[in-house]
Amino acid sequence: MPINTNQFLQTFVDESMELLQESEKTLLSIDIQSVNSENINHLFRAMHSIKGTSAIFNFTSINLFANTLESFLGQVRSNTRILTKADIDLLLKSVDCIRTAIVNIKNKNPINNGELSELSTIFNEKMVGMPHAASDKIGSLEKPIERKTQKFGWDITFTPSRNSFQCGTEPSRLFKQLSEIGKLSIQAGIDQLPEFHQLDPTECHLNWHLKLYTDAPQKEVENIIYWVEDKENVCITPICTEEKESPIIEKKSTVENKTTQKNAAQTTSIRIETKKIDSLINITGELIINQSKLNQITKNFNGTPLTDIYETLDLLETHSKELQEKVMRIRMVPIEFLFNRFQRLAHDLSKDLGKEVNLIIAGEQTELDKNMIEMLSDPILHLMRNALDHGIELPAAREKAKKPSVATIWLNAYQKGSHIIIEMIDDGAGLNKEKILSKAISAGLLKENQGLSDDEIYKFIFQPGFSTAERISDISGRGVGLDVVYKNITALGGKIEVQSKMGIGTTFRLCLPLTLAIMECQLIKISGQIYIIPLMNILEITKLDIKQFNKINDRTRLYHFREQYIPIVFLQEIFSIPNFSVDIEKKLLIIMEVNNQLIGLVVDELLSQQQIVIKNIEENYEKIPGIAGVTILDDGKAALILDINAILDFASNPQLINNKPEFSEKN
Amino acid sequence: MIRDAKPRKINTLEESNLSGSFQFLSFNVAGHYYGLDLLTIKEVSLWHEPTWIPNAPDYVKGIINIRGTIIPIIDLCDRFSLSPEKYDPLSKRIIIILHSKSNAIERSIGIPVYQVPNTYTIDYSDIVPFTDNKNIILKNYIRGLVTIENKMVMLLNAKDLMSDVI
Amino acid sequence: MDWQLKNDYVLIHCGDHMNLACIQDHKKILSEALMKNKPITLEADKINSIDTASLQLLLVFTQEATRRKIQWEWKAPSFTFLYVANLTGLKELLSLPKE
User: Fold this and answer.
1) Residues with Cβ < 8 Å from A547, sequence gap 6 or more?
2) I want to staple A74 with a disulfide (CB 3.0 to 4.6 A). Which of A134, A400, C57, C74 is the partner?
3) Cα angle vertex A612, ends A608, A614, to 5°?
4) Mutual orientation of helices A336-353 and A370-386 as an angle, nearest 10°?
5) CATH node for B19-163
């Protein structure tokens, strides 16, 4: 096969990017005053990994740079160096640099070695000043395996088996990699070559004797040979004396294949939890069973009742749909991939602007379709830039306003029914209602004194070209941002809302539809019917103790729970289920938390906990108050998912109950 | 077969001007025979016990799951205020799934029926107008009447039935 | 890869990709060329990628031509060809030019 490292290259790119991302996160979280040794270890290991893998692929500049960083971190780790803020910034810059190099590799562009060596020099200069600099050898973590007597290199014999080519072994690739770590001298053995007419060209009849002159330890050579299919036909022994020179292959610095590869197309990849793959495998198994069942039925067709066929066809369709859902689930990735980038942005931007900001992230495990995450990147980026540039005041101004000099931005994500909510909240200056109003009027978008509500006024910021910024920075303020954000979010099928209070802060709330809504939940039984409660709302489940139960009046009941009195609801009352008695003997109480309020729901029976797919009831019916959605249980029956928020509302406003939806009101 | 693909308000007089054949599904509810245009019928499904839903009109018996889609169940007995049907455990209960497409969105509802339905092909000219004004609810749904095998079948307008809940 | 009969020699055009997938075809073509019993020129300027198996084939081919006393020579071997031949220690054995 032609030299083709593509398949492994993607893995290298993915793994390295992940390591870099984690390193960045770690660097941003380091507290100079009390450095956590685990963080340093983490960074050290990351650089060590990148050093190793980049060597395998002959990315020498990255390998050497990672080596330098590893040494530097090694000094910090062994307490011969104290980490400074400047060091952290430099390390962050290094992460960026390696990241750029890897992106170039991915896009088959040349790596810019300039910046890498520049940074490398800076680190090296720093280290030179230090006594007891950490050793440069790889394997400072591992016990050294190389024998001290070996100084000149490795003698390698390689005798591939006959079918070695067909197994994917390409000797030229192997030799190339070896030539990158030292001077390689090659001798090909042609003693086994048959005559032309007897030659089966797919079989390998060649063997090789190599001499690799290098400082690299055996392990490094073995790393390279690891990729060879029949590595057992490789024999490595150390060289101790100079031997007669054979043609030497010089180390080549260009790594990229000039050869055109058929698969030059970009591939993107997703990392998937194996349990998602497992469930896929299960369902395909079921599909195959159905298929063979159908096969059998049609083969032995002698008037088999059609119902058998219909039932099997039914099952087939159900399973196919399930398969589709499971495959879609694979594309769901946690939003933390997106959010983590913003930590970095917040750090850099706030530095540039001379502001101090703390970014707090919550709900990063909330899952979204990968596509959507990629499309959210720009809009949220812009919102954050806006917040940092215009919303957050300079520290001096904040102190004057009696606010803490370090501003806070919260980035939250959570699932609400079949939607994902992403909030960006800042405690900055808030939107200036007056300014927006006057700008709107002067732009002709509004007539004077039209008497709009605050919310309506704020909506103007999403108009194209609208900006009340006094100065246009190159970050934002050009007025071309928020309308694009609005368009982008709307294009995704979502909504964007803004709330603000002058002097207090601003909240942007994005509401996005889920392509696939999955939730962990608790199944319960009330009056013989199964209902679903989202697990994330459940605080505790307890046996209803009559002694703690206090009836205030017909509608209001309180339960004494851990020093608090919490309201209790009976679903039967909220949903007007007939023939229901408020009998609390032998019942269970589910304590739920929503919007920082506690509420107790009385249930008859506790069933299983499981992951469910939320289905929309509005496809063929109306929105039902109190119901967040529907799911399909294992027996194929539909079950209602309770909307805990709405139930809380009902508990506080009993008059909301018995308000039947008006069917004349459509959408 | 003449098929008018556009959805339209059925005017039985208009109908009698159409020529050609017309296929419908005939089924029995509470002793009366009703019919639905075969084109509006997505499938006839085995019985699924509906899941009760709160705060729904009395004729919405609940929801069922058909291959991953949630479909509401509309009981015609309750809808037309007919005297309730006696359920014979030996008879085969089924659900007729109606569907309609508007703006490329397909919506469905299910109608429980306690007997197996039949399919008939008639001529448009066989359809006569419905003149009984006693049942004020029912007459809003009826396109016309046809007599099959000495039985009177009331042809229903599927779209009207569906617009009740969607 | 294909071959052309010129007035007094056979010209073999090595294709742009020489790999295991097309190697049986290549062997057939080389075999046909040999049967002409005329001097052979191997034009290798287009070779963009080549694997060890193909180098092995070419080696055995040139050895056979020599054995049959058929003159053969390379014409404009591409950089890639020279590079990979060098890497596998076969450059000299293939009588490829030093530069």
Assistant:
1) none
2) A134
3) 140
4) 20
5) 2.40.50.180
C46 in reach of chain A (CB within 8 A): no
User: For residue A422, which of A377, A482, A455 has the smallest C-alpha distance?
Assistant: A377
What pLDDT does residue B104 have? Answer: 58
The number of C-beta contacts closer than 8 angstroms across A and B is: 85
Q: Annotate chain B with three-state secondary structure.
A: CCCCCCCCCCCHHHHHHCCCEEEEEEEEECCEEEEEEHHHEEEEEECCCCECCCCCCCCEEEEEEECCEEEEEECHHHHCCCCCCCCCCCCCCEEEEEEEEECCEEEEEEEEECCCCEEEEEEHHHCECCCCCCCCCHHHCEEEEEEECCEEEEEECHHHHHHCCC
Contacts of A195 in chain C (CB under 8 A): 60, 64
Output the pTM of the full model.
Answer: 0.46
Q: What is the DSSP string of A416-469?
A: ETTEEEEEEEE-SS---HHHHHHHHHHTTSS-TT----HHHHHGGGGSTT----
A286-300, A639-653, C48-62, C73-87, range with the lowest pLDDT: A286-300
Q: For residues A486 and A494, what is the distance between their CA atoms, to the nearest angstrom?
A: 9
Q: Which residues of B touch A617 (CB under 8 A)?
A: 53, 63, 70
On whether any CB of chain A is under 8 Å from the CB of C51, the answer is yes
> CA–CA distance from A611 to each of A316, A590, A633, B147 (Å)?
22, 19, 10, 53
Q: Which residue of B has its CA nearest to A615?
A: B70
Q: CA A607, CA A363: separation in Å to the nearest integer?
A: 27
The helices-and-strands tally (H runs, E runs) of chain C is 3, 6
Q: What is the pLDDT of residues A67-112, one digit of tens each?
A: 889 889 988 888 778 888 888 989 999 999 999 999 888 888 888 7
d(CA A371, CA A367) in angstroms, rounded, equals 12
As given in the structure block, the two tokens for residue B135 are 């049942």
CATH level 2 (architecture), domain A517-656: Roll (2.30)
Q: Does domain A333-513 have CATH number 3.30.565.10?
A: yes
Tokens of A148: 């001290």
Rounded to whole angstroms, the Cα distance separating C50 from C77 reads 12
How many CA atoms within 13 Å lie on the side-chain side of A187?
A: 11
Kindly indicate whether the domain formed by A153-249 is annotated with CATH number 3.30.70: yes
Q: How far apart are CA B111 and CA B94, in angstroms?
A: 8
pLDDT tens string B107-164: 899 999 988 889 999 988 888 888 776 777 777 888 889 998 899 999 998 888 888 7
Q: How confident is the model at residue A227 (pLDDT cuts 50, 70, 90)?
A: low
SS3 call for A498:
strand
Give long-range contacts, CB 8 A cutoff, 24+ apart: A30-33: A30/A83, A30/A88, A32/A83, A32/A84, A32/A85, A32/A88
Contact state of A624 with B69 under an 8 Å Cβ cutoff = no
A6-128 maps to CATH 3.40.1190.20: no
Mutation site, C56, C59, C86, interface A, largest A CB count within 10 A: C56
Q: Which residues on B lie below 8 Å from A666 (Cβ)?
A: 166
Cα dihedral sign for A313, A317, A318, A323?
positive
Give all chains having 3 or more CB-to-CB distances under 8 Å with chain C: A
Q: What's the ipTM?
A: 0.91
The domain segmentation of chain C, as residue ranges, is: 16-78
Range B10-17 contact pairs with CB under 8 angstroms and sequence separation of 24 or more: B10/B143, B10/B144, B10/B157, B12/B127, B12/B128, B12/B129, B12/B130, B12/B143, B12/B144, B13/B129, B15/B124, B15/B127, B15/B143, B15/B144, B16/B124, B16/B125, B16/B127, B16/B128, B16/B129
- Mean pLDDT calculated for residue range A133-145: 34
